[in-house]
Structures
1.
Amino acid sequence: MRLSIDVRLDYGITGDADVLLQIEAAAMADQKIESESLTLWSDSPIRAVRGEDGIGQRCWSRGHGRFTAEYKAIVAVKRERVQLELYPATPPRMLDGELTPYLMPSRYCPSDRFEGFVAREFGGLEGGPLAAALTEWVYQSLDYRCGSSSGETTALDTFASRSGVCRDYSHLLVSLARAGGIPARCVSAYAPGVDPPDFHAVAELWLAGDWRLIDATKMATCSDIARVCVGRDATDIAFMTVFGQAYLWEQTVKVTPLDSPSS
């Protein structure tokens, strides 16, 4: 699938502040950037740095007063369908070292607090069958409700309230997967059909030697998701981090499916 992406961020900055953006789709083997442009209205030059795990990039800038950014891209996504139930389990002791952080608790994903629940409710399952059961449980157990969480909401809060937005679905699935011995990370992404239209958060689980994209909200499938960046939780994948104070004027995110590219 080919996706047209059109993003506009318009914020006010109180005083002066450094701004870290993560809004560019990542160039990867399963998603090709056909065209893109990033425009910032700022008196300071843009400085690009690598994203987490070398996926995508972050851009540093300096904000003062009005801070506006526009990003446009066409991305061709070519990715096999995820069939979770077919993937075998990999014991944690057999995982490569770079995967270890994705087995551990993090700020918004306190996976150690879910170990008892996963063992009790999903005992006997491992690998792909466990991942499929956890994904379905999150989808069935939560109500998608805008405004039901905040930037401080953790997976444990979401588990208690049984409601949230895409970020909360991602945090909870990642936490449950880690509690079950499956490396898991959060993904910032673009996807069509997201309601309301916005940056989207999904999960990736390490199964059968590769990362598998999963949207626990079921608003998108792996074949129509364009990754922006990955990380342990929302701390690493925020689309904009302001090292100071900022307020919103306007923000729009449009993702439109285009005709599939010719083979």
2.
Amino acid sequence: MKTKKKFKWLKIIRNIILFVAAVLLIVMSGNGIMTMYEHKQYPAWGQYVEVKGKKMHVYTKGTKGRTIVMLPGLGTAAPVLDYEPLLNELAQQNKVVVVEPFGYGWSDQTNAKRTVDNIVGELRSALQQAGIPGPYTLLSHSASGIYSVYYANKYPDEIEAIAGIDITLPQAVEYFKESVPEIPAYMSLIAPSGIARLATYINPSDFLPKADEGTYSDENIKLTKMITAWNAYNKDVVNEAKEMEHNINATKEMTFSPNLPVIIFTPKIDKVTEDGKSNITFYEEQLKNVRTHQLIVLKGHHYLHWTHYKKIADDVNAFLSATPARPF
């Protein structure tokens, strides 16, 4: 009797496993078919350029003024869509470019390591292939601050200014005595498994900009959900997070050049360490030797451009207008 009961339970467990596997296979297959359909139905807004044998998406708006290159924060699934309100404001007086890195937006994924040298090299190649000459103002959000610092130090003649939105700088880890956060490797299964697609329908607020109604159009929101289903925590994003400690170590001796104009926007955060350190004191420390700089504190969250896109655009335009353009 005990043997029969044992086999009965084993059969039930086996059937449950087979059922779950079948459901996952159906969801994954459906997600794959949907993704292929969406890529055809909703083509990229900009142009594709070839970088290291892969397609990289470059979107450009505006024809006059400075050339502003916008770089996304780690894991921002659809950079062009995320930046759209700020991009539209800046494009009224500037030529604005969003280069979507591999694993982001409409760009391909890659097997190349997500080192700072590779990421910046790919960015430069994309700009060159797209026929967009410098000098550039790099407008970075979050982790892309590290890439901006590296770019400006390695190719100083190509960069005429840096604008940062709550940017990560390599000295922050030592300044705050913090460890470098990581994304678990299993997270790279979220998009191909179809879980990301389901999550965007079940709880879309977790994946959409937290902005005033009307800031982002219905079309933008629809596309953001769609591209999140393609890209959420994909292998490139996970590998980029994995390389973050290496990238910080590779740039920790790099600082802003005294001659490089820098403007930084940071949220007002009441959190202060026991020794009086905050995001504001940190940025002040990094900017103290920069001759032309500005630190602007705004009420809001990490993605300040969701709610303050007009002010950020006005302040960036005013800052650039006050600094002489660099010939290239």
